[in-house]
Write the structure tokens for this entry.
Amino acid sequence: MTEQDRKKWNSKYLNNIGSLDPSKIIEKYIFLASCGNALDIACGNGRNSIFLAQKGFQVDAIDISTIAANHLTGKNPKLNMICQDIDTWQIPQNRYQVIINIRFMDRRLFPMIQAGLKPGGVLIFESFIDGKKEYCLEPNELLHAFESLHIVYYEEREAEHSDKFDQSVYLVAIKRC
């Protein structure tokens, strides 16, 4: 499925690289994270990775799309682009001061995300709720998946940027020391 996924995402980014504005939830809550290593899961066009690098983070940006990777490569010396299928990638343990997961869903990553955060590290997560789609969350699922972290902010609300989904979900949490 890797090659099929790569073609799908390459096609998407070839036709439209997307907005370069960072996610609002990252802009609002990045102050909670101390500078250091950051991970942007399924970084896409790199809008959030670039924002984190400009804030002083050393960013590992991972995405399957070679088009997205080529777009991001060389944008900032603090960016480490990893062009790889997330299905086969392991998040290093105890490495990141901040992990962002914006509009990507893979439940397999939940335990690795928690283990990848350093104590005091910040998780910023944005996804969609739709009980009929496997790549969407159920109501309160994200909250329960990360309940071992200190939840700073959690909200489920009407989706602002999607014609496919009814609700968005937002979570900001800190790994306990």
The chain is about 25% helix and 30% strand. The radius of gyration is 15 Å. The mean pLDDT is 87. The longest helix spans residues 2-15.
